[in-house]
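Marked as duplicate of an earlier ticket. Keeping the data here for the record.
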Amino acid sequence: MEYDYLIIGAGMTADAAARGIRERDERGTIGLLGTELDPPYNRPPLSKGLWKGDALESIWRNTADVRADLHLGRKAVKLDRKNHVVEDDRGARYSYKKLLLATGGVPRTLPGAPEGIIYYRTLEDYRRVRALATDRRGFGVLGGGFIGTEVAAALRMQGAGVTMIVPEQGLCARVFPGDLSLALVDFYREKGLRVEIGQTVKQISTRGNGFTLRLADGTEIGTDAVVAGLGIQPNAELASQAGLRVDNGIVVDELLRTDDPDISAAGDVANFYNPALDQRIRVEHEDNANSMGKTAGRNMAGAGERYHYLPSFYSDLFELGYEAVGELDARLETFSDWKTPFREGVVYYLESGRVRGVLLWNTWNQVDAARALIAEPGPWSAANLAGRLPA
């Protein structure tokens, strides 16, 4: 199979890239190669909107509308840069003129754990968990980060019993300041969840049709199902095999090209330079998948556009929600400007007088203003940030 543009990956980034290509090239042939059996879909609803009544049909990206061939249920296993050929796990070969690696990430797993644990990532994972939730099963949710908090809230809203096992001393503790992280624990407990903070799972064993979780302090918890949200690792295996530069993802330049000018990378897997933060970053969120994928596609078709965008992200946790932009790291200095403590306000993340990130907690339509603030040199402090946003 011969393509002008070949995209490895069939997620949001791949779909956005195909559409970006079509903005510049109406006639070039496009092929997408993806491991999932489902065609490209929007991923955030898997832990948000689908649990609140959104129709499953609403998630589809309809990539075929841009005349892209979809090769699904296939994994690219070999990249021959010299001959511009990719081979999949069934022995099929695909030639390309321009190639995009939009391979995303793979979930971190628990070594030695029994089969049946759901490492929440894909639409198929959603289908499995939703079927279990419909039966009002009891769930153990491992991890208190973005996915863990969203999935736990979604399950509880369906009436399921939920126990969260969180190694940190709070929810989203690596991202939120300590007082907000602990306030979120209290909020989840008020919603009827059992939240075990500062705990790790030492052993998981099967128990009938369910599981027993043995914690570090010896506590044993029985549960019908286990869902793990332990983060992802960038899926850079194909790039490494081909000798491309890999360092916390696939390293790309401002035009999203790898070491090989005919190969680009975008989305969760791409490590790129951001001028506003003056550092290389890798972003695992929807806004980056869409914007970076589109730019990569346009550049594959000759646009020559620098990717200097600072992506945002968002989450829904019961009736709470937030948007955020920039670097959110609990190790940074933070200033919380609350309108109502832990219910509505803005958290600023600072380093050396510069704003590095902004968390908009139940505060909406301020992402662009937050981006502009991060771009300003300052110096910033609590004194001149108080009341700054909403703008």
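See parent ticket for discussion. The CA atoms of residues 8 and 220 lie 43 Å apart.
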